[in-house]
Structure formats: structure tokens, C-alpha cells
Design a protein that fits this description.
The chain has 290 residues and is an alpha/beta fold. Helix content is 41%, strand content 13%. It has 14 helices and eleven strands. The chain has a five-stranded parallel β-sheet, with helices on both faces. A four-stranded parallel β-sheet has the order 8-6-10-11. Strand 4, helix 5 and strand 5 form a beta-alpha-beta unit. Helix 7 packs parallel to helix 13.
Length: 290
């Protein structure tokens, strides 16, 4: 480790960029967070983004898994990232604290990007990444298009206010985890014209929902995630017969999970898919909601 530190120390002058001194756009950008991966892939100039996190290639959680295959991946290691000689590292605000602190002590510029917790946060995150990359005009156009498309989608679906004859929906994932109302997923549910039963359970920010309470709540639709290959006791609950018995026509497995994870323009696909499912609910379900 002393030898590694010595090598890093000797190389320090080559990475002396500091916040507030961005004269030209960064030429070598490394992203080590799934959500910054996707925003950077959408906004970076050709050749500007040199590495994304390894999870960016996972199609179950990454909406741009195919695009990520064109980039070298990293596993979030300080030595690994330093040796890529980036002039900007994009990271999240949670986790990797020791790694990011080490990279900063070695003179690298690190930007910690907060997740988008609501649909309204997405234009800000687009602009934040775009500005860091020196791509503010492109980011501004993307943010404006997102805002306009979301408004048009809501108008086209004729989505009313909460409780105004809207069907009730539950998300049920591994370990019985449900998405809360005050989250990005909660906003997607509202935008698609559903009421989230997590609000009835007092789970504003999500949490474990016992199967018995889910059954007693009798939602009009249940959304479950896509299970990974192999056997998992945590995921078995998503296929429990009680869920199918709630309403076979209203149970949706494999909800396009990747479009829900990060605050990018791809959440519009999640809203469209869910709104289409709402429109296809059996007439009896629609009448009961009203």
C-alpha cells in the first residue's frame, strides 16, 4: 500500500482539477453509480465518458444495459478508477465514502449526485450532469423535452386527482418490499393514474408489507418485479398464490423494472406502460374504483 500511495502521490500533479476551476469540459469521465451512468451516457460527447459501473450492464436494473456494453466497466475501486486517469468522477451521495475520499485526496475531481426522489427532480439532475460535462445546451433541451412529454402524457391519459375514481395499486417485490408514496416510484404510480396503497398503510417512503395486509387491502392491481435466475427465498413471495388470487387479470409480473430505478427520461416509458395497464383493467375493476 505504501508503494501504491507513493505512485499515486508522484502522479498527483496530473490530476489537480478543483471544483470551480472548470475551464474546459472534462475529457475523461468515469461514472461509478447506476443513475449517473445512464445520465452520462445520454448526455456525454462522443469519447468523453470512458467507464461506467458494472451494474450498468444489468438489464434488470439498467434501462441502458445495451448501450452500456459499449463502455469499459468499473467496480468502484479507488485504485482501479485512479489508474483510468479521469478528470471527473461521477458518483452517488450514498456509499463509497472511503473510496471517494481517497480519490479526492489524490487530486481527482469527484461529483456526488443525489438521486431523483420525485419526477420533478429529474430536470434538475439532467442539468446537473449536463453542466458538469460541459453539455448544458444539450441538457437544457433534454430537460425541457422531458417536462413537456410528461405534461402531454398526463393530459392524454386524462389522469385525475388522487381518489377521484382511480384504481388502487400495490408494488410487491422481494421480501415483501413495497414502494412508498413519497418516492420516484410513487410519483410514477400517480402519474399513471393509480393510487398507491402504501399510503393507506402509512408507508410514505416504502417498507415491508406483510402478505396478509396486502391481501386484506385488495388492490386492483399488483406489480411485482422480475426475479433473477436461480432460486431465491426472498423472491418467492412475489409468486405466492395469494397474490394471483387477488385479481389474476390485474397482476403484472416483470413490470419493466429498469425504467423505474433511476431518474432519467426513461421513467416516461414506465408511466406509459403502467397507464396502458390501467386502461386495460377489466370493466368491473374500473367500476369498483369509481
Amino acid at each position: 500500500m505504501r508503494a501504491v500511495a507513493l505512485v499515486f502521490g508522484l502522479a498527483l500533479p496530473f490530476h489537480s482539477a478543483h471544483a470551480g476551476q472548470e475551464v474546459v469540459p472534462p475529457a475523461r469521465v468515469v461514472s461509478m453509480n447506476l443513475c449517473t451512468d445512464q445520465l452520462a451516457m445520454m448526455l456525454a460527447a462522443p469519447g468523453q465518458l470512458i467507464s461506467v459501473s458494472h451494474v450498468a450492464r444489468d438489464p434488470l436494473i439498467s434501462a441502458l444495459a445495451e448501450e452500456a456494453a459499449a463502455y469499459p466497466v468499473n467496480h468502484g475501486g479507488a485504485e482501479e478508477i485512479y489508474l483510468m486517469r479521469p478528470d471527473l468522477v461521477l458518483a452517488g451521495v450514498w456509499g463509497h465514502d472511503l473510496t471517494l475520499s481517497m480519490l479526492e485526496r489524490l487530486g481527482l475531481r469527484v461529483a456526488r449526485i443525489a438521486p431523483a426522489d420525485r419526477l420533478s427532480d429529474i430536470p434538475d439532475r439532467i442539468m446537473e450532469i449536463g453542466t458538469l460535462l460541459g453539455r448544458a445546451p444539450q441538457a437544457r433541451a433534454m430537460a425541457a423535452a422531458f417536462t413537456a412529454d410528461l405534461a402531454a402524457l398526463r393530459d392524454a391519459e386524462g389522469i385525475g386527482a388522487a381518489g377521484a375514481g382511480r384504481p388502487r395499486l400495490a408494488i410487491y417485490n422481494a421480501n415483501g418490499y413495497t414502494t412508498g408514496t413519497e418516492t420516484l416510484g410513487g410519483d410514477i404510480i400517480r402519474a399513471a393514474g393509480f393510487d398507491n396503497i402504501a399510503g393507506e398503510m402509512g408507508l410514505a417512503y416504502g417498507g415491508a408489507l406483510p402478505l396478509e395486509l396486502l391481501v386484506m387491502a385488495a388492490p386492483d392491481m399488483v406489480l411485482t418485479g422480475t426475479a433473477y435466475p436461480g432460486a431465491s427465498r426472498a423472491e418467492e413471495i412475489m409468486t405466492h398464490p395469494a397474490i394471483a388470487a387477488l385479481n389474476a387479470a390485474g397482476t403484472l409480473r416483470g413490470r419493466g423494472d429498469a425504467d423505474w430505478v433511476c431518474g432519467t427520461i426513461r421513467v416516461l416509458d414506465a408511466v406509459r406502460t403502467l397507464a396502458a395497464r390501467r386502461a386495460a383493467l377489466p370493466p368491473a375493476t374500473s367500476e369498483a374504483a369509481q
